Amino acid sequence: MAFALRNRQELDSDQFTEMLEHSPAKAAQAILAAAGQGLVEAQLLLGQILLDGRGIEKDPGLARRWFAIAAERGSAMACNMLGRCLEHGWGGEVDQAQAAQHYRQAARTGLDWGLYNYANLLATGRGVIQDHATALSCYRQAAELGHAKSMNLLGRYLEDGVHCPRDVHSAQRWYQRSAEGGDFRGQFSHAGVLAAQGRTQDALKWLQQALEGGNANFLRVAGPALELAEQPEIRRLAQAYAARLAQLQAQA
């Protein structure tokens, strides 16, 4: 990937990554210049740094507009990010139905994140009619592309036998792959399997990783669940989950 700048020089992806790390304001200006010249990838990146406030003043509304511009020009990831803005109300009103349309558009290109986000709405019936069969299909497609979060949710469908034959062994394999892929919910699911097999120390390792990577919503549910564990070592870890949740809430 290369960005054309106003002086017609080019900044390749490695240079950009280094610039963003060491001089985010300079990188932001380079992205802004390239986005203004119509480079779709730069428009997508400009939306992201405006959303994050990295190297440039945070402006979710403007981020949403740049995602829309890049989406109109064919960027599947921009469609996905525009969907996220609409789903969560970043930079404007919440519109779950419009979010679903953009996720569906991204999903049709085979984008793993588009498949995952569209499946989430289908599974919960937000913005669309609830459709577990299509949600399962999307999660499976994304999981097969290597999407760790989708692996965990595919595992749940398989474990529970929701709109598919129940297959506990396949579910466990997907949980393991999700955990190894870095998804904190997958790590928690995989730890549950290990704990049930009597592999408490292995379970504790994955629970610790889930603790370190988990967000507040996850910790709010996972902590009380650990309090019900048979193993005292795992029950004690619930206190660490509660402390981490309190820390995240204080930072919010």
Order of helices and strands: EEHHHHHHHHHHHHHH
Please identify which CATH superfamily of the largest domain we are dealing with. Tetratricopeptide repeat domain
Tally of structural domains: 3
What structural class do you assign from the helix and strand content?
Answer: mainly alpha
Q: Unreliable stretches, pLDDT < 50, 5 or more residues? A: 1-11
Strand order of the largest sheet: 1-2
Q: And the CATH topology of the largest domain?
A: Serine Threonine Protein Phosphatase 5, Tetratricopeptide repeat
N-to-C terminal Cα separation, in Å? 35 Å
The CATH C-level name of the largest domain is Mainly Alpha
Helix coverage percent: over 70%
Architecture per CATH nomenclature, i.e. the level-2 architecture of the largest domain: Alpha Horseshoe
Count of extended strands: 2
Number of helices: 14
Proportion in β-strands: under 5%
Query: Overall mean pLDDT score?
Result: 92
Question: Could you say which overall geometry the principal axes of the C-alpha atoms support?
Answer: globular
From the alpha carbons, calculate the radius of gyration and give it in angstroms: 21 Å
What does this structure look like?
Mean pLDDT is 92; it is low at 1-11. The protein has three domains: 46-117, Alpha Horseshoe (Serine Threonine Protein Phosphatase 5, Tetratricopeptide repeat), CATH 1.25.40.10; 131-181, no CATH class; 185-252. It is built from 14 helices and two strands. Strands 1-2 form a two-stranded antiparallel ribbon. The relative contact order is 0.05. The protein is globular and about 60 Å long. It is mainly α and 252 residues long.
